C-alpha cells in the first residue's frame, strides 16, 4: 500500500471535469484507490464519491493506493494533480 499527500492546486478544485479526468485515468488500473479529505474517505474511481469531497483549491488530500499496480497508479494520480488537471493550457 502506498499513501501520499497531495494538494488540490487547480483554480476550480475537484469540480466535475477534473473529477471525470481522475476517474477516467484510474479506470486503467486494477488497484483500489481512495482519497481522504475533510474527514471523508471515498473511492477515487467513483465520480460521485470524489465530488462529495467538495475539495476546493488548496485542499489537502490523502491518496491511498493498494494493489498490483499501485506504484504506477499513484504516480499517475500525483502527476495529474501536479499538472493541475491540465486546466492551465
TrEMBL record:
Presence of keyword Cytoplasm: yes
One BP term from GO: phosphoenolpyruvate-dependent sugar phosphotransferase system
Keywords recorded for this protein, A-Z: Cytoplasm, Phosphotransferase system
Cellular-component GO terms for this entry: cytoplasm
Keyword flag Cytoplasm: yes
InterPro entries, A to Z: HPr, HPr-like, HPr-like_sf, PTS_HPr_His_P_site, PTS_HPr_Ser_P_site
Short name of one Pfam family: PTS-HPr
Domain HPr residue range list: 1-88
Cellular localization per UniProt: Cytoplasm
PROSITE patterns: PTS_HPR_DOM, PTS_HPR_HIS, PTS_HPR_SER
Principal place of residence: cytoplasm
Stated family: Belongs to the HPr family.
Protein name: Phosphocarrier protein HPr
Species this protein is from: Lysobacter daejeonensis GH1-9
Lineage: Bacteria, Pseudomonadati, Pseudomonadota, Gammaproteobacteria, Lysobacterales
Amino acid at each position: 500500500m502506498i499513501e501520499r499527500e497531495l494538494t488540490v492546486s487547480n483554480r476550480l478544485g475537484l469540480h466535475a471535469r477534473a473529477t471525470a479526468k481522475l476517474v477516467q485515468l484510474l479506470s486503467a488500473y486494477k488497484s483500489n484507490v481512495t482519497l481522504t479529505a475533510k474527514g471523508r474517505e471515498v473511492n477515487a474511481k467513483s465520480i460521485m464519491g470524489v465530488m462529495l469531497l467538495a475539495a476546493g483549491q488548496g485542499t489537502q488530500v490523502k491518496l491511498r493506493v493498494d494493489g498490483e499496480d499501485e506504484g504506477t497508479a499513484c504516480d499517475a494520480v500525483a502527476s495529474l494533480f501536479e499538472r493541475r488537471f491540465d486546466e492551465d493550457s
